[in-house]
Write a structure and sequence with these properties.
The strands form four sheets. Strands 1-7-6-4-5 form a five-stranded mixed β-sheet, sandwiched between helices. Helix 7 runs parallel beside helix 8. The relative contact order is 0.20. The longest helix is centred in the last third of the chain and has 22 residues. The mean pLDDT is about 95. The protein is about 30% helix and about 25% strand. It is of the alpha/beta class. The chain binds coenzyme A. Coenzyme A binds next to helix 2, helix 6 and helix 7.
């Protein structure tokens, strides 16, 4: 039986920081509202950096932290909703930047759950023995899609990237993964592509932005996070005491607090870094995992659960032994 493991992580964010006070100069909001409703204090935003720039920086750190070299990587999967171009994908651009050999590279879009979906693919492909070492990345410049005049959404998002090298292993590291999707038939969380254009008129559409029904997304998130964690525990015959840490998608601190209460895992076991980054979509989970490892919150031998949800409505979770 072949197993898989995390073999190096890294993350990167653009240097420019936008605080809640900075946002209060743009829209009618204030630090007290944003902090108390979301837990966010600041976020990093790209000025010139592209999604590929951030993905490259995060990947180099993950490779440096791993036991493999660039030549050992035999696939790249990038989860993003904000690629630099419709094509080529961020993964293809990364191949050029990192000087990777001729390997399959592709992007996936499962919104904020994208990184867990990429992890699922990497895990299954390595277990099939077709590949040995896969670089997976969650990278976003979500603030490009932000409507800076809409206080309901513009306070929530930030930019960044997180990367992970997933490798074959003799011992079980990535123990179980759940991914799923529950149709968002009402379009509670959506960002349109540019309108279809009549080529004879060739009208230029307005820039498209994120549209969100916050309360409905909140309801979905607070239902699916506890159920995913509980399912992972049940089907692996584990108790909540067996979990050293939970690393959830950072969308709202109150969502994490509600999940902590519902699964009865204390908040000091729930990683929270939303105060520094806001919601970075597919980058949120790998940024949080890398930070938690580098700060020593998760150590070799620890068991942790990661869980995410997002547009679609997609969701995913993984049970991992570091
Ligand atoms: C968006 C969210 C923070 C709003 O929090 P909330 O407690 O539900 O707030 P409400 O929607 O009840 O809004 C309360 C009031 O604050 C106002 N408000 C909204 N944004 C504001 C802001 N940035 N500053 C000040 N006031 C704001 C609203 O207009 C509303 O005013 P009204 O009562 O006069 O209409 C919360 O619903 C949420 O986090 N949802 C999930 C979002 C998410 O996770 N998205 C990404 C998924 S990947």
């Amino acid at each position: 039986m072949r197993y898989t493991k995390i073999n190096g992580t890294g993350h990167a964010v653009p240097p420019k920081v936008l605080t809640n006070d900075d946002l209060a100069k743009i829209v009618e909001t204030n630090d007290e509202w944003i902090s108390s409703r979301t837990g966010i204090k600041r976020r990093h935003i790209s000025v010139t950096e592209t999604t590929t720039d951030l993905a490259e920086q995060a990947s180099l750190k993950a490779l440096e932290a791993s036991s493999v070299t660039i030549d050992d990587i035999d696939m790249v999967i990038v989860a993003t909703v904000t690629p630099d171009h419709a094509f080529p994908g961020v993964s293809n651009l990364l191949q050029q930047r990192l000087n990777l050999k001729e390997i399959p590279t592709f992007d996936i879009n499962a919104a904020c759950s994208g990184f867990v979906y990429a992890l699922n693919l990497a895990d299954k492909l390595i277990k099939s023995e077709a590949y040995d070492h896969i670089l997976i990345v969650g990278a976003e410049t979500l603030t490009r899609l932000t409507d800076w005049s809409d206080r309901n959404t513009c306070v929530l998002f930030g930019d960044g990237a997180g990367a992970m090298v997933i490798s074959k292993s003799e011992k079980p590291g990535i123990k179980d993964i759940i991914v799923g999707s529950r149709s968002d038939t009402e379009g509670h969380l959506i960002c349109d592509s540019p309108d279809l254009k009549d080529p004879s008129v060739n009208k230029i559409s307005q820039q498209d932005h994120i549209h969100m029904n916050g309360r409905e997304v909140f309801k979905f998130a607070t239902r699916v996070m506890p159920s995913t964690i509980n399912q992972l525990l049940e089907r692996n015959q584990l108790d909540k005491e067996d979990i050293d840490y939970v690393i959830a998608h950072q969308a709202n601190k109150r969502i994490i607090e509600k999940a902590s209460k519902d699964v009865d895992i204390p908040m000091d076991k729930m990683y929270v870094n939303i105060q520094n980054y806001g919601n970075t979509s597919a980058a949120s989970v790998p940024i949080a995992i890398d930070e938690a490892i580098r700060k020593g919150h998760i150590k070799p031998g620890d068991t942790f659960v990661t869980v995410a949800f997002g547009g679609g409505f997609t969701y995913g979770g993984a049970l991992i032994n570091l």
